[in-house]
């Protein structure tokens, strides 16, 4: 890597359309492009390379801290080029880096090929909306597009609490206050606590990690704020169960009631390789709460929610399989990709054979 500065390597990653760069001592730099790891032809990263990169990238305010921590997250920016989210970790006693590219331009809901009905989640005045999926499934970009839609259509004060800050918003009709854990606030709990004293309309919690954060998010939603948050879960049912699992069994029924009252909807997504091999496209499950769904949550009859949505375009809601089927019909993904990513392959096979009574044309 010595022939390259870190900035030139990051610029090369941008040219290649990479989403991530991996730097590991003793290994050649690698890029993730369209979901696949590709190794560069550069020399292996040396310990000296890594230490020089750390000195170049780590914010001055975090210099002391990183040498006393096994894992650190921080932002980096090449002005006029792009922002980056950096994770610094230890492996076999040496530092390693994973660098995520965060473009300046925030894509619209339409540009991301998300269903237009996602916009409905921006119209609530209060409650909680969850965006879920595996690491690298595009959650941060989806949330950014949703918040920027609010920014351009409504007059709100939007507060984000992130670790680290990813997309940087430019105020339009709305105004933004963006706070980074470890620099602008101690932790998510304090960030949320004090956010409620800062006259917010909309609050983004970068990630729900523990019971205390769930409690704070529910409290914010109950007190008249619209809260967006992310979780590493794969569908709405798993998401609801995951939130409840943060609490001891004796408290879950009470929390279930709280959650049912403030839940407004969720987006769960996967990024899939396009059939034309030009990047990736999201398949989504979209759930928007209704009185019937609220009742199913209260009764702990979560499987009934899927059956309701499965009937076809119920209140603009979408299951993963209907999303996969629609992407396949539009020739945006292959049949094999659709089947490989389905969590109910038998049902999807029925759709592919034409045994499907739901919507045939989702509004993307």
Describe it.
The strands form two sheets. A seven-stranded mixed sheet has the order 9-8-10-11-7-12-13, with helices on both faces. Helix content is 34%, strand content 24%. Helix 5 runs parallel beside helix 6 (211-222), helix 8 (252-262) packs antiparallel against helix 9 and helix 11 (320-329) packs parallel to helix 13. The model has no long low-confidence stretch (mean pLDDT 92). The protein is an alpha/beta fold and 364 residues long.
Annotate the secondary structure layout.
Blueprint: H1 6-16, E1 20-24, E2 30-33, E3 36-39, H2 47-57, H3 63-66, E4 72-78, E5 82-91, E6 94-102, E7 127-132, H4 139-153, E8 157-162, E9 175-180, H5 188-195, E10 202-205, H6 211-222, E11 226-231, H7 236-245, H8 252-262, E12 263-273, E13 280-288, H9 291-298, H10 303-310, H11 320-329, H12 335-340, H13 345-352
Parallel strand pairs: 7-11, 7-12, 8-9, 8-10, 10-11
Antiparallel strand pairs: 1-2, 1-6, 2-3, 4-5, 5-6, 12-13
Helix pairs in contact: 5-6, 8-9, 11-13
Spatial arrangement of strands, main beta sheet:
9-8-10-11-7-12-13
Distance between the termini: 43 Å
* Count of alpha and pi helical runs: 13
The shape is: globular
| Helix/sheet category | alpha/beta
Q: What is the gyration radius calculated from CA atoms?
A: 21 Å
| Largest sheet report | 7 strands, mixed
Number of extended strands? 13
- The helix-strand sequence is HEEEHHEEEEHEEHEHEHHEEHHHHH
Low-confidence stretches: none
Helical fraction equals 25-40%
